[in-house]
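Replying to the earlier thread about multi-chain prediction with a worked example.

Input:
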Amino acid sequence: MASLGTFLLLAAFVTCSYAAVISVAGARRRSRRLIESGIGAFYLICAIMTAASAVLINAFLTGDYSIKYVVHYSDSVQPILYKLTSYWGGLDGSIMFWVFLLSIFGSLAVYVNRERHRELIPYVVATISVVQMFFLFLMVAHKNPFTTYLTAAPTEGEGLNPLLQNFYMAIHPPSLYTGFVGMTIPFAFGIAALITGHLDDSWLRAVRRWTMFSWLFLSFGLTLGMIWAYEELGWGGYWAWDPVENAGLLPWFTATAFLHSVMVQERRSMLRVWNVTLVIVTFFLTIFGTFMTRSGVVQSVHAFGDDPILARLFTGFMVVIVVFSFSLVIWRLPLLKARNELDSWLSREAAFLVNNWVLLFAALFVLFGTMFPTLSEAVTGNRLTVAGAFFNKWMTPVGLILLLLTGVGPLLAWRRSSFSNIGPQFVVPGVAGLAAAAVATVYFKIPIWPSGLCFALCGFVVGTIGQEFYKGAAIRSRNTGTDLFTALVGLVGKNKRRYGGYIVHVGIVLICFGFAGNARKLDEQMMLKLGQETKIGKYTIKSNGVKLVDDGQKQMTTAYLAVFVDGKEIDGLYPAQWRYRRHEQEPTTEVAIRRTPAEDLYAVLGGFDLADQSVTLQLVVNPLVNWIWVGFGIMALGTGIALLPERSFAFALAKMPAEAAATTVAILLMIVLGGGTSVSAQKGMGGDANTRTSFYARTPFEKEMQHEIVCTCGACGHQTLAECRKDPCPVSHEMRGQLAAMIDSGMNDRDKIIQAFIAKYGSEEMLGAPVDRGFSRLAWLFPYLVGATSAIAVGFAAVKWTRKPGAPASAAAPLDSALEERIDDELRDLD
Amino acid sequence: MTQRYIKLGLTATVLFGAFAALMWSTLQDGTEFFKHVDEVMSNPQQWEGKPLQLHGYVVPGSILKRQDTLEYKFKVQNNPARDSSQGHVVEASYTGIVPDTFKDEAEVVLRGKLTSSGFHTDPNGVVAKCPSKYQEKQGAGL
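Result:
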């Protein structure tokens, strides 16, 4: 099988070179047949890469340990989900996954645009093919995932790093990759537009949604990374300015800038060079980020190892990208001339411009900080590093300026505003901002810099957005004669991009709100003996000792902590350390978190002594942190709305947008359901297995409990007690016995049984899911929020696409002439 | 037209200057020297009091912990424990939770300052790499 994989990669490489050459030749000779042949070859790459991926996945599933990559990143006891995700668990496979995604996205983009942007397509095909060639070359020449052992192959794999055996980790890389790879499409269209000279706005329209789509996944990937760091790494925070994290953030900044500045070009035909540059820079940064983390240039806790050959190959490729792209831009400068100039600094385009500068500055700054150790070593010979505090110091004002612009931008008119015009508009947001500031600083006694200011700005932005929604809805309601709510829905439906964008901004506000909570973060380390107490914030924590359990796959050491507030015991926390077999040197920290909307209480077991039952703890109180995750959910909702086609008949006209939207919601749904299906699928299997071994459920209640509690043997992939019976599994057998005994002894309360199991096994591991209680519900809420978003988006799309075009246009009744003009202005633009 | 360019140039210079000055001043207290034990201990006076990230290996058997506290004392050597020579050795102190991977022979990076009585590690200043052969750690996806 391995040789088949290698052969497929070679075949893909050859096909890529053919597609690139024949497309360019076809375009130059204006030969339709050559171009079609190039497109055909391009689709073929997609097919070949799918086959190659199937070969690799098959190798993981069947445990083909003759392949080195499979040995390194999997073993036979791994749950199937993690066997699949091992595909991109290492360097070689992640490059292959990259090409695989690129071939799919590329084919999709070419397929939907091949008629509308006929003149661009051959160069799009050529550009994407060249990028694919580079990555394929990396694999074929240097990092082939199908490399086999020359001599005796091992009979068992080494297993994926336990830290990565986590649900968020399974979906985080593909999400981030989707974002990264998706940015190649706008780049390819940009290059094609530059080469052909078709530099009107049509290429922008082809790529705007792709960028939005990629941006969504980039954001999603970054958020998942944060959640993973918070829940799995156990240091109490979620963002450490690690080079790997920064690598994901860099293109996010430039893509965000592009999504804003593209509106200025559509609207005012300005910033044309700027937009092309942003597209190129974004693509460059995705490659650069990959380079940074793959080649060992920058030291990072979780970068792949050193690899000088890879570093050289990447450097060469990046130089080619920069020289080639910017030569094209310079060559086409005459065609890229702006048709308008900035009329006034008090205008929306100026706000966008400032926003772009700040975002670009943020990207450059993070790039500088990340590369600083390498740069300083090259220049001075001393390796100087910058700490996270340095980033925070700089990025805090940057974030606050962006937040301010988020609130100011919508209040300004295009072209020019006057102070007398916009004055009244600032009243509501201003009051909201001041109120928020007053509450934060006076009531909660939060220092004004930076958190107090952040809360004030959050209030301001929410005020602005609320005002925009209200005024728009009020006008529409008057004109259409409907009630305010219907008008609001209609308003959003009619200007999805604009109001979707506002919803994204609400998400951003919530995220900033969560960040600002850091001002009140408490972080303490202490040692507690049996029965000793300590205080953190409003909580009193009492240690009830530590216990060691071995389940055959790992040793679990769990501390038992009781949490008191005002002398009343309100909860228990069970932080743990797990040591997996074959990974004894890398214990994983199982954090215990008590979530509430106001703050998280977060406990990490740092060390323990079984003899005298003392535990070393890190306790953290993280205020408002959950709002970050909620904010992302709202951001996803907003982006989903903005991604829907502008008009019903746009669906037929512009296929890509609709498909992008549909793909987005489909993928989001898949991700959300992914978590759920594993549970439900297993539930489906439970019935017949029940008859095989002992302790079948005798009562409906026992059956329910058997479906609720998960086997901890580690070999079955967390099946429930009712299901883990295929091989006689001693662990689940024993657990079923315990359950039966508990029920026999008269325990018939679900919570009591669960508590008893938690106490016995020392963690919440045997719960198939987080306890659905208190604010642990948020962990449930997050996927559902994303799911609901998708569902609404799908419904919206379905209704929209089936409706006949030509909704009645409404004549606007003048009310507030300035506002009216402004809204009118924008509606005309967007409709 | 020329006047406009002069204005633009002046603004750009001022902005850039302010930016560079700010950057420089924040960099001063934001940076740390990344050094190996040998580099520092061959001339300790020169490095005393400077913010350092010290790279080395824990000397086997040197970790001491005061009973019922989180105070640690240990020694760090320049070369990996399996090498024939240790290279320079420095005494280090730390108070707080140590990472799980902090143990004899572990490769460590300590953040803190050198004093005449040894290396004082900052709170949360111990970063330990695991000594296992598991090299390629896949991190946040990229």
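Residues 2-30 of chain B form the longest helix (29 residues).

Feel free to reuse this layout for your own posts.
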